[in-house]
Specification:
By secondary structure, this protein is α/β, with parallel strands linked by helices. The protein contains 12 helices and 18 strands. It has 2 domains: 306 residues, Glycosidases (TIM Barrel, Alpha-Beta Barrel); 92 residues, Sandwich (Immunoglobulin-like), CATH 2.60.40.1180. The protein binds alpha-D-glucopyranose. The site of alpha-D-glucopyranose (GLC) has 5 residues, from loops.
Length: 445
């Protein structure tokens, strides 16, 4: 009897705790969902790699790590980092004009040079460079004035810190297991810096980097997440915190099939480097950037497009041009991008697509100046109207091959006049009578 009672009690306790756990994870999911909403709607962010590496125009941090330059010579760049033409209001207005809804700046790269007056050490541009000013606070203020969310890139690893194990590619200072107290000292420093960012700048988003050198346990990734969310429950954390982030960050490489992550962001340079490098002239054209942007959004993601200001704060003219052209395109076609959802599966239309949240508007992106009759397959919804975004030209359509006795929908042909094309990518807005229905069969009946 007692045995049975114990069993029933144990089952009851187990069921209750399962229910509680489920409820908790639901709450957690729901709150993540709501804090992620602005990010999902934003689609475009601007990444800013600003640092002393722009003085010589060399690889950010990696150049000394990989021994392309000696550490002392790398650090000499501090003397040339003037920020004399740093104009946060102009930066914010350029970002605004691009259509971006968030920006992420390198508060500290792997070289350990902080762009804010950290009190945890002296390696910051206020104390150690002629810039002599906080470069984070005025930018965050200008961004927020423009209703742009402000994100902080932060390198967890810090190759300059004397208590950080890693240094050059073939040398380390020590192993954590041999000197755990030294590692704890570094973590006190790291958490001190994060605490400053959190308390003084309240980032809307943390963009961690460099987590790969240590495990989640070593970093206490869970603790970092907890403490940042404790300060601001709505802050978003990127996926580079050893499993404790909110979204994925594929870098430079474009997904071919649609990623299964709920939230993801492609981070990409405008030439081949993150920071300013005079010799790098491999600029992407505005068309290329726009088509990559469209591709990311159609696949349910965001684009975080990088700019690398010069040491004095000037933004290279090629990047100004890319942001401006992207912004003009967004002015004409942003209705198909912002606050929308990734599009329909591949196969229905030979190009990227997006959907309105109620899925009763389908947007078709015509690449490479496509004109003439474009085709849409397997659309099992009635079309109300079709127009070209940006110039409101209404377009007729024709249904071809609809067999009266078959449930398979006919093909939709839309004739797009060459004279009405966007200089980059034209968008057709297809208004449906009801939320979209698609036929995805193999033909036949
Ligand atoms: C990489 C690099 C870094 C760069 C970052 C941006 O992780 O280490 O230099 O800042 O990507 O995504």
């Amino acid at each position: 009897m007692l045995q049975r009672f114990k069993l029933v009690l144990a089952t009851l306790i187990a069921t209750c705790s399962l229910l509680i756990a489920n409820a908790q994870s639901k709450v957690a999911q729901e709150s993540i969902q709501s804090k992620m909403q602005w990010f999902a709607d934003a689609k475009l962010g601007i990444f800013i790699h600003y640092g002393i590496y722009a003085v010589n125009g060399i690889n950010e941090s990696w150049s000394f790590h990989n021994k392309e330059i000696s550490y002392p010579d790398y650090m000499k760049q501090l003397n040339g980092f003037t920020a004399s033409n740093y104009q946060p209001e102009y930066w914010a207005s350029l970002i605004k004009a691009s259509g971006a809804r968030y920006a992420v700046i390198t508060t500290k790269h792997h070289d350990g040079v902080a762009l804010w007056p950290t009190k945890q050490n002296q390696l910051n541009v206020v104390e150690a460079s002629p810039a002599k000013k906080d470069l984070i606070a005025p930018l965050f203020a200008a961004l927020r004035k423009n209703n742009i969310k402000a994100g902080a890139y932060f390198s967890l690893l810090d190759w300059s810190h004397p208590d950080y194990p890693g240094f050059l590619k073939d040398s380390t200072r020590y192993k954590i297991k041999d000197q755990p107290e030294r590692w704890n000292k570094f973590k006190t420093f790291l958490n001190g810096q994060l605490n400053e960012l959190s308390k003084n700048y309240q980032p809307d988003l943390y963009w961690f980097d460099g987590d790969w050198e240590h495990s989640a346990t070593d970093w206490n990734a869970e603790g970092i997440r907890e403490s940042l969310l404790h300060d601001n429950p709505n802050t978003i954390i990127n996926g580079r915190l050893q499993g404790y982030g909110d979204y994925e960050t594929p870098e430079q490489n474009f997904p071919v099939t649609r990623p299964s992550f709920k939230w993801w962001e492609l981070c990409m340079t405008t030439n081949n480097n993150w920071g300013y490098q005079q010799r790098d002239t491999a600029w992407k054209t505005p068309y290329e950037v726009i088509s990559i942007f469209v591709d990311a959004v159609a696949n349910g993601g965001n684009l975080l497009l990088d700019i690398g200001p010069k040491a004095d704060g000037t933004i290279p003219k090629e990047q100004v041009n890319i942001l401006t052209e992207l912004g003009k395109w967004n002015q004409r076609n942003g209705d198909a991008i912002f606050d929308r959802l990734g599009g329909i599966p591949q196969g229905h239309f030979y190009g990227p697509t997006t959907l309105s949240k109620d899925s009763s508007t389908l947007y078709l992106f015509l690449q490479a100046k496509t004109s003439g009759p474009v085709m849409l397959k397997g659309l099992d919804s009635k079309i109300k109207s079709i127009e070209i975004l940006g110039n409101q030209t209404k377009l007729p359509h024709k249904i071809v091959g609809k067999i009266s006795w078959s449930a398979v929908p006919g093909l939709v042909y839309i004739d797009v006049p060459a004279s009405k094309l966007d200089p980059y990518i034209t968008v057709l807005k297809v208004q449906l009578e009801k939320p979209i229905k698609l036929y995805r069969g193999k033909g036949g009946l």
